[in-house]
Amino acid sequence: xxxxxxxxxxxxxxILKKWLGGRAPNPFAVDTRGPPKPLVTDKALRRKVIxxxxxxxxxxxNLDAIVIGSGIGGQGVAALLAKAGKRVLVLEQLGKLxxxxxxxxxxGYEFDVGIHYIGQLNExxxxxxxxxxxxxxxxxxxxxxxxxxxxxxxxPGNGRRYNMRTGHRQYTDELKKAFPGEEGAIxxxxxxxxxxxxxxxxxxxxxxxxxALARFLCRSGLVHWFSPFFSYASRSVAEVINGLTENQELxxxxxxxxxxxxxxxxxxxxxxxxxxxxxxxxxxxYPKGGASEITYHLVPVIERAGGAVMxxxxxxxxxxxxERRACGVVVRGKxxxxxxxxxxxxxxxxGIFNTYENLLPPEMTSLPEIQSRxxxxxxxxxxxxxxxxxxxxxxxxxxxxxxYIHIPDTDLEKLNKRFFDGSRDEAPNKIPMLYISSPSAxxxxxxxxxxxxSTLTALSFARxxxxxxxxxxxxxxxxxxYESVKNEFAEAMLETTIQIFPQxxxxxxxxxxxxxxxxxxxxxxxxxxxxxxxxxxxxxxxETAATMRAATPIKGLxxxxxxxxxxxxxxxxxxxxxxxxxVLGRNLFLDLxxxxxxxxxxxxxxxx
Length: 608
Fold this sequence. Notes:
Elements (H helix, E strand, L loop, with lengths): L1 H18 L23 H8 L14 E4 L3 H12 L4 E4 L11 E4 L2 E4 L5 E2 L6 H9 L6 E3 L5 E5 L6 E5 L3 H11 L4 H15 L3 H8 L2 H9 L2 H5 L1 H6 L3 H6 L5 H8 L14 H12 L2 E4 L4 H13 L3 E3 L2 E8 L5 E8 L5 E4 L3 E3 L3 H8 L2 H4 L2 H8 L6 E10 L2 H4 L5 E5 L4 H9 L13 E4 L1 H4 L3 H4 L3 E10 L16 H22 L7 E7 L1 H8 L13 H4 L1 H6 L9 E3 L8 H17 L3 H20 L1
Parallel strand pairs: 1-2, 1-14, 2-10, 7-16, 14-20
Antiparallel strand pairs: 3-4, 5-9, 6-9, 7-8, 11-12, 12-13, 15-18, 15-19, 16-17, 17-18
Helix pairs in contact: 3-14, 3-26, 5-6, 6-13
């Protein structure tokens, strides 16, 4: 055993010395923040940025990299490379850029798609510093209400309410207030959350060191020895929480955040659960101006380095040369013939399944190295969405800038089986969890863009198989049968939402919904999932975590986004940072921390 430890330490020091050597320009060399400019609400001006249509004659020459997909994983890695002086082309299949960061309009109402709330954006947090640098300080954030999350158990109109407060002490005290006699269990839970989530960097490390070394650490057992994160990665949320308390209602409340990664507690990793609890505990934020502001401020950074971000550009294939190296992509614009665009680096934000199974030539997909990686993960749970337009301001309607999570019963395993093992016809009446929030209430600038209008978004899950028969039909033209099935779910979600917010019942002017095949079309999700590859215990296994990395078995081809690290905005953006680190050959996280330290020191000097 000691031989393995000594060998691991020596090898780690050798790799670390090489890794810290930084062989490319540093995107975080200087603080590029500037004073925020006024919010741009002119739709024509915004279209010029977020709806640039692909045309072969507009593709920059001498590209350094091509990025497939314009979600935060794609735009994030492109912006990082642009800040290092690289010329990057980002290609998006939809007519609007942003992936889950885009918004859409329906009958005068503005709806976000995937940005619901983001944690750890307190001043000078590493995540905040990264975003500020990538947008030159132009993207601004609004702190949500306290409580940021409200858990409703039982009857949606008259159930038990539990408030998730901002701040570690407030969060803990509120739980103890709600569950007298369970103080010890709550303290042990909070201790574990802090202990485990505080070592998320171990997962990042495994993905950034050479794969051979990462596998040595995994197979020797060293990773479990030094990492609390991986010690709990193989333990389910249900196992850990059930070991802390016999109180079924407290168990459910401590598990409530499973909806933000899409895995029920019996199969969810406590390590991931801890990371997300900690992520939001310090407060939750929403982008001022709506989710499309993210793209609006990232695109100019990419363009300033000579790159471009283009919509309506469907990548049909990744080009592989005779040396088995990625060298470009085949792109088809709307109504155009396919064209080849060449670059020495190709980065995919399309997800591991789309990239390996659909975009590579068959002879590459069949490679043992590729098949091995695909076998380590499975598709995530399909998603349902409901978007509600309501007449009235947030003040008139009393809509809070908080999220509501409705869980109809404390037995989550029973809810899960009853819903997913039942028939499609019965499922709308057995929805096991519903997330509801008001984007318009979260955004202090919403009234400026949409006066007298408010919105609510409701989300849940569904089996892809329930909608699969319509996957090849054109969007919005799938026929009466499809609309009937989808509306059954939408109406059930709507009724629950109205029971929670009865004041909106007579104020609803429109609503629209999305199914897993909707997500398949608009987000490129192979089975309509919100969160990419499933975030279950298997994915958190250290060897799986080490293998699902930015570098692929094909030279010149990289992955970015949430399939590289974890789900959500922060997970996808940090996945982009891992990818850019690999491409540039330097540890950008260390560069980021050095810049953060300089900013903090500069701020301290100004206060003296």
